[in-house]
Structures are given as C-alpha cells and as structure tokens.
Amino acid sequence: MIYFQSLTQSELAQLLLPLSGIQKTGGLTPEEIQVKSEKRARYRAKQLFHWVYQRGQTDWDQMTDLSKDLRQWLKENIAIFRLTPQLNQQALDGTHKFLWSLGDSKTIESVIIPAALQSAVDLAEDLEEEKKVPAGPHAVGSRGIYSGKATQDDLKSTNWKRLTACISSQVGCAMACKFCLTGIQGLDRHLGVHEIVTQVYELRRLAPITNIVFMGMGEPLHNFENVVKACLILLDQDGLGFSKRKVTISTSGLVPAIEELGRRVDVSLAISLNASHDEQRSKIMPVNRKWNLESLMKACREYPLGSHRRITFEYVLLKDINDSLEDAARVYDLLRGIPSKVNLIPFNEHPGSDFKRPSDENVQKFQKYLVDRKVTATIRISKGRDILAACGQLRSIFGTARGTEKHRDWQAQQA
Ligand code: SF4
C-alpha cells in the first residue's frame, strides 16, 4: 500500500497513467494516445487531490465522479493515512496541543496556536491572504473571521487573526539544544512524508488552519528530502493550498541544507538563533560547533527571499546567559543587511531544566534596544504554558521518549 499523503500530484498522475488509457483510439497516432492518456491521468490526480484535501473525503467509494474501476484500484493500492489522537489538550489561551500515535507506536506532537486580531494593518494583510485560500469546507470567511469546522468553541471564535499549525518533522531530535526537551530526548527516527503532511491534514479537519510552522519536534532540515516533498504537497493549490508566505521552516542552522532549501522549494525561513556569539551558542546549541554564526549569517544573506519577505530569528531568552544589553547589541550587528524580524521568547521553564526565565523588565529592555534601532522585534509569550506547550513536553510525560534521569524522576512524581 502507498499512502496518499506521501504523493505529489504529479507522482499520483504517474501511478494513474496505466489506468488512464483511452478507449477510442481510431485515427490517433501512438504519441497522440500517450498525450491524451497523460492528460486524463493528470485530471484524475487533480480530482483526487480535491476530494481528499479540500473536501475531506476519506472513503474512495464516496468519490462518485470516479469510475468504479478506478475506485477499486484505489482501494487495493492507495491508503489515506490517518493519525490516531492520543491526547488533545486545550490551554487557557486557546492553544491546542495534540499527541498523535503513529503506526509503529511512536508518538509525535502538533500544536494549533491561535493569534488574536491585532490591528487594522494585520486585518488588511489577512484580507489579502484570504483571497488566496481555496474555497471548500476549510475556507476562511470575510473580515478575518474564520468560518470552518472547529472542534472546540475557541477555534470558532472571531478573535483569532490566524490559526497556526506547529508541526513535527522527526520523532525526537538529534540536535541536542540544551534548553529543549526534545533535544534532551534524542532522535528516534525521521517522519515520513505522509506523517508530516497528515499532521496538517488532521488539524485542517478540526480547524481552519491558516499558517504552518515546522517548529514542533525535530530539526526539519535533518529530514531534508521528506520535509521538502511535504512542503510541495502542502503548497499544492489543488490540495491543502497554503501560500508560500504561510509555510515556515525553522532550523537550528544546518547551513548546507539552508542553501539547498532555497534552491528546492519557496517557503519562509526561520532561524533558531538563541545566542549572540559563537562561544555562547556552541554551549547551548552544539550544531554551532559545526556551522558557526558567520557561516549561518552568510547562508541567511544569500537565502532567496521573495518580495516583502523576511527571515524570522527566534531568540529564546535565558536568564543571565543571553539576555543582556550587550547580547542585544551583538544580535543587532549579526542581523545587519538581512531582511529580518526577531521573535523574543522568554524561556518557558519546565521541570528538570536548570535554565531560568528572565525578568519581564529585562525582556522588555532587550526588545527596546532592537526596536530603537528599527529592528522589528516582538515578544512571544510561550503559548499554552498550562498544558506544557514547549516542544517535547507532552511526549515526555507519556513516557515514550528516552528522557533524562531528571525527567524520569519527574514523570514518576506525576504518575
Ligand atoms: S530546539 Fe529544535 S533543533 Fe534544537 S533540539 Fe529542540 S527540536 Fe531539535
């Protein structure tokens, strides 16, 4: 069996080609027959993308405009992959966190992060983007009001500017960032294309997701080929139909893969920066020992950004480690010449971590330093704090990750 969500539209058309031969061939040359068959296969692939991704149909027999023979072939050869929900928690701020079990009993997490309508400018941007969202059960309504299916009342609220799906690319992560629970757990395995795409597919069935960020478990560029192919499927306008501006890949800094990404797929880029100089970054992000800040910033400068697009730099503020005004000044220098915005994220303290959250005053001073120098810098309050929304937290509670002694102790206390 092949999973539907692992196929691009053109790959699906290739699979359908042997079934798409035309009956009446009188007077046609073999080349003309081939062209007509390919056209029919492409048309059928498009129909199937509409049925599965836009109409949410999961039963081949209900796809009534397909021939009986084709439906039978689909039943025998292609499966629509589903993720099994193990847990769905809702935080007070509206954040939803999902723990999914995969076919092999591994688990991954995805999060829906709502953002409130903020300003007339935001609303105008939304109205522009709404025009690009395909019609269907997941369509976005007028004036930034999301009208689609939602599982819980908060997702139906008119207060959300956007609903962002934060998805995972691996089970665990090999990058071992010191402040991150997933990093502590280590890498279990890469996710397949179908497992990445299906996180969005499942969340879109629950809520009118508008944005996707690869900021869940895993380093997306470590699972490069699968992530690139998943992006191509997510961007397909006959499928889930996301705009390239609305899909963001966040990386800890795998420099050669950043360069390759720019050549392979047109999506937005975020860098998990988290430090202002090499010594500091290498201590908390081992990836920096291989690709230092100079090479990372060079890759960012050369990343092919479309018009009006910027690279997002995520900066987790850790008390007494990277939160001084000297750090802010070095960050400012690093970003010179790069169209950028900075997301400052005060560390989300969790059991078993030695890192601390800086005071609100220090966070605001850090932001002010950048804003005073015309750098767009926002403070992102860690969403879903009451449901442990930092990456890897749900999974570690449920004991499917390896975990450290401290985490195992903590899990035992929670049991
Ligand atoms: S912060 Fe991201 S890259 Fe680093 S260990 Fe965690 S999941 Fe991996």
Strand order of the largest sheet: 3-4-5-6-9-10-11-12-13-14
List of distinct ligands in this structure:
iron/sulfur cluster
Q: Nearest-angstrom radius of gyration?
A: 23 Å
Global morphology: elongated
Report low-confidence residues grouped into runs of 5 or more: 117-124, 126-151, 384-390, 396-415
Largest β-sheet summary: 10 strands, mixed
Q: Give the helix tally.
A: 16
The helicity comes to: 25-40%
What is the CATH architecture assignment of the largest domain?
Alpha-Beta Barrel
CATH superfamily descriptor of the largest domain: Aldolase class I
Mean pLDDT: 83
Straight-line distance between termini: 39 Å
What is the helix/strand order? EHHHEEEEHHEEHEHEHEHEHHHEHEHEHH
Class derived from helix and strand content: alpha/beta
Number of strands: 14
Strand content: 15-25%
Supply the CATH class of the largest domain.
Alpha Beta
CATH topology type of the largest domain:
TIM Barrel
Number of domains: 2
